């Protein structure tokens, strides 16, 4: 069985982390598999939404601690290995946001440390009731500094710092209220609810969602005046497309649009 399984349903790609015995930890091998799929999806214009899930009793428990301890067995005590590991993890997390397709986390069980970072790095997230989220590295003496980057761009600062500094876990409904996830559903409905959201996104004009996702993350890093100027330019470009003209005409004429993209 592959470490990361992919199957496509129409325009939706489903990526399932398949290392349940390790709680789908982000091992060197798992990060490499995720990076390979991200690279492939970035070039795949038939896919309009991506779902990431985990097999077994957990979504993802973060970095593989046993593997990290093995990385210490070098002359520099693991310094170069750890630097490379966190750089590769960052490449995966930022790669998800750079994909043209919206990425949805389908979360159950636990999402801890870099696993919580993975949820925060996805564009959308649906969680099963009873799911627990934590950036709990501080409990073992390791502050979750890289997960912090994604977390603080999802939830308010004081709530983020409390999670980071205490190692406290939050339940799914609290995570939704904070803004870490979009929806909480019964566990039996998780796959269907996530698929429904993915299919809704995939049903939109792909080029419009792509340009919108790029603009969404770009403007979030800008001051308000620069953000409005950038967003205005994006809307002008979008409005000039043939498919956008067709979409507006179809709406006014109360019919389905005849899109080419």
From TrEMBL:
The family classification in the record reads: Belongs to the enoyl-CoA hydratase/isomerase family.
A Pfam family: ECH_1
Q: In Gene Ontology terms, what is one molecular function of this protein?
A: hydro-lyase activity
Q: Which GO terms describe its biological process?
A: fatty acid metabolic process
Summarizing the function annotation, the protein's role is: May play a role in fatty acid biosynthesis and insulin sensitivity.
InterPro entries xrefs: ClpP/crotonase-like_dom_sf (IPR029045), Enoyl-CoA_hydra/iso (IPR001753), Enoyl-CoA_hydra_C (IPR014748), Mitochondrial_ECH-domain (IPR052377)
Query: What broad taxonomic lineage does this protein's source fall under?
Result: Bacteria, Pseudomonadati, Pseudomonadota, Alphaproteobacteria, Rhodobacterales
Q: Which NCBIfam families match?
A: PRK08139.1 (NF006008)
Q: Give the top-rank taxon of the lineage listed in the UniProt record for this protein.
A: Bacteria
Q: Which UniProt keywords apply?
A: Fatty acid metabolism, Lipid metabolism, Lyase, Transit peptide
This one is known as Enoyl-CoA hydratase domain-containing protein 3, mitochondrial
